[in-house]
Amino acid sequence: MSVLARVFESAGLTTVAVALVREHAERVRPPRVLWVPFYFGYALGKPDDPDFQHQVIAAMLATLEAEAGPVLADYPEEAGPIGMPQASEVAEASNGNSSAAKPLDAAGEVTALRGYYERWQEQRGRTAVGITGIPQRRFRGIIRFLEAYAESDDADMDERPADVSVPQFARYCADDLKAFCYEARMAQRPGDNEMDIHRWFWGETAVGALIDSITQRLNATGDAKLQATAYGLSR
C-alpha cells in the first residue's frame, strides 16, 4: 500500500494510507500514512465497530493537514482488535494451563502437518507460503535456524540473501511457518474459525512457542530495531 501511494502521488493523486508494519512505512516513505498497532488483517481495528473504525479513518485523513511530508503518524490506541488476543497473551494463558496437551517438537510438528498443508494447496491452488524462497519440504532447516536464533544472535542460514539482515530473515522464516501452519490447520479442521486457529497456533503448537521465544528474547534486548522485529514476529 505504501508503494502504491507513492506511485499514485507521482501521477497527481493525493493519497493517505494505513500501515500495519511501521518499519515498512519508514523504509518506503509514502506521502501520508497512519501506522496502526492492530492485528494483521485488521487495518481499521475492531470488527463490527463502525464508530471505532470511523475514528481510525478520521485519524488517517488528518494526515492531509500536514504542511509538508512525508508524514508518518501513529494511531493512539494500544489495544488490538476486540476478540483477537495478542500472541503473548495466548502463550501465557497456555503455559498456565496444566491440562494443555504437550506438542511435538517444532520440526516434528512441521512434518506432521505437511500432508494437511499439501491438501490445502491442492484444494485452493494457492498459498501464502514463499517469502523465504525455501520449499516447505525443507522447513525443518528453518526450524533449526530459528531454534539457534532463539538462543543467540550468531545464528544464520545459508539461504539468507546477503541483502537481508538476520533478524529480518528470521521474521520471513516465521511468516512462512505461520502461513504453513494456518493453512494446514484450515485443511485439517475446516470448521474452525480465525479465533480457533489463532488460539491453537499460539497456545498449543511448538512452532508458535518457538516464535514466541524469539519474540521474548528480542524484546529483552532493549534495541528498538530488534523490538520492531519482535512486534512483527508474534502477530
Task: Write a compact overview of the structure shown.
By secondary structure, the chain is mostly helical.
Protein structure class: mainly alpha
Number of strands: 3
Residues in β-strands, percent: under 5%
Helix share bin: 40-55%
Pattern of helices and strands: HEHEHEHHHHHHH
| Rg over C-alpha atoms, rounded to the nearest angstrom | 19 Å
How is the largest sheet built, in terms of strand order?
Answer: 1-2-3
Instruction: Report the uncertain regions.
Output: 98-103
Q: What is the rounded distance between the termini?
A: 19 Å
Round the mean pLDDT to the nearest integer and report it: 85
Number of helices: 10
Shape call: globular
Biggest sheet layout: 3 strands, parallel
Tally of distinct domains:
2
Can you offer a commentary on this structure?
The structure is a single chain. The chain has 235 residues and is mostly helical. Helix content is 54%, strand content 5%. It contains ten helices and three strands, in the order αβαβαβααααααα. It has a three-stranded parallel sheet with strand order 1-2-3, covered by helices on one side. α4 packs across α8, α5 crosses α6 (139-149) and α7 runs parallel beside α10 (224-233).
